[in-house]
Amino acid sequence: MASDADEPLPPPMRPAAAARPKRHVLLTMHHSPDAPLAPNAQKVLLELKGVSSAASRAPLDLVAVIDVSGSMEGDKLESVKKALLFVIHKLTDQDHISIVKFDHEATRLCPLLPHPVTEASRARLEGLVGDLKTRGSTDIRAGLQTGLDVVANRKITAGRAASIMLMSDGRQIEDGDPRQFEPGNVAVHTYGFGADHDDDVMTAIAERSLDGVYNSVPDSDNPKELAVAFAPILGGLTTIVAQDMELTVTAIQGEATIKKVDAGTYRLRTSSDISSSVTISFGNLYSAEVRKVMVELALSDRTASQSYRASVAEVQYRFAFQGQEVTSRPQRIIIYRRRRASADPANAPLPVQTEVARLEHVASIKEAVAKADGGKLEDARNTLRAALEALRRIVDPVVDMLRRELRKLLELFETEETYRNQGRSAALSSISSHGRQRGGPDKDTLIFGTPRMITNLEQAKQRDDMPVPSADQDAQLELEERPGWLQDVLPVALRLLAAVLSLLAFSIIASARTSGWDGEYYGRYEPYRYAVAVNVIVCFYSIAQVFVRIRRSVSPQLRSTSCYRVTLFLDQVLAYLLMSASSAAASSNHLWVSRFGEDPFHAKITAAVWFSFLAFLALSANALISTANLFSRI
């Protein structure tokens, strides 16, 4: 195969590719199941999720565009160098990287080189990074144009994803407004360095690209902090499973019209009649990443009709994979129209309510920034407080992160100084993240995080002497840890088994009756009551853990180390209590038989103790699994 690089590609070192998955993208629709026959508005939430394994991802052509103008002198440029080295180490042998530097003019330091799998090529790239020095004024447009030229002049494009990383303080000096630069269909992810960087410029550049995100990089000499800023987006770029993703929504004529489509900052194309068809262009979709589109439909008047199943709209998506176009079958949005149905938005499904809350949350942040920019900082804080209060009514993991995001912004909006130095860029980064539904504004509120993004964040925080795994090594580890009977099915089965066994145990003990159970011989029966209480707790705890397990598989953000610590602690404590209760009940039962002989009461208690002991074994097995889960993440 021909190469874009000046040197030949090294021999392939990747393991054999995984079998091509049957499905790359999953479409889910959330809406009220029924609606009245009278004219009404219905909100429909459409979710596209990348369900393909990251092992079958698109190779990456990455162009790093580096600002080396005089304003980047000192800590800014040193931070850029450290961040760029982290990026280089994460790439694999199927990825290519080019470095472009710019001041008042732009220079391509190297073409799209293959990943540095050899010491010589690694030393070459690291040497290029180390030799970067500041000079001259700033022309961001020149740097971006040179980066786009590198992408446009690629010899191999089929099945490969191209992306640009712009690292700058955004302080344009030369003629021309970089905010008006048109990057076409290439994603430009911008990273603003320094507390004085121009966040308006960096945000505008990212938003004018197809699916780029603006990121604010903290002032820090610590390479870990810099790596944390780059880890989420890099985790996405090395897990692209669908390119040129588009979603088309078409209203069924006579049944409904499209009133509004909210897809964040992604591009919309409408038909000549906007109410009939809308197409959203998403660019690249990462593995396990979700794109949400809120569609508001105006249902037509059907008061003269009887109840019926109405097809109100049609949804279809398309994308490219390995150079091939993939188009889904059209899917209908079906709502049962009946006379007594309610159109109250409060009756909408929880995912719809959560997304509505998120969109209102973003609008509140935008309003707060506008007020703070106008010198009304206290009004801006009041807006954020009101947004925080509005989220109280919804219980959802995503909403929990929205609350954390607002609390952090309230801290950064505390004074004019903190707002200028950190608050404004943090708020704009949040708005950019929400607009693209990608990553998160910082490591603590990775609202749109994927498993690979979370893995990259954990790696970025590791000790300096620990090597940074490549994206290929991450993919191999994910394949080894893919959900299987031992990874997910067995823990859930054990939790259910513990719940059933403890339910049987306390039910049998509670049903056993003999003289003195509720009377004057309370002390004789106290161990049995102890066993009942512990088994009740274990039953409800095990059921709760089943739901936690399911939510962890759906929401990667819940897979934090602290969650596994709490689970391990509770497993050990309850396993001890269950063994203690079972032993106490068994001892008392043995004493009962020695005094009164065998009877139906004794037989029931014996069966209950066995069920309780088996529940202890199931809980102990789960404690071992919790230990393995915890230590695999430390």
Automatic annotation (TrEMBL):
Record InterPro entries: CASP_dom (IPR006702), CLCR (IPR051266), Vwaint_dom (IPR032838), VWF_A (IPR002035), vWFA_dom_sf (IPR036465)
Disordered: annotated segments: 1-20, 424-445
Topology versus the membrane: Multi-pass membrane protein
Keywords tagged on the record: Cell membrane, Membrane, Transmembrane, Transmembrane helix
Key word RNA-binding present: no
Polar residues composition-biased segments: 424-434
Residue span(s) of domain VWFA: 61-233
Family assignment from sequence similarity: Belongs to the Casparian strip membrane proteins (CASP) family.
This protein's name: VWFA domain-containing protein
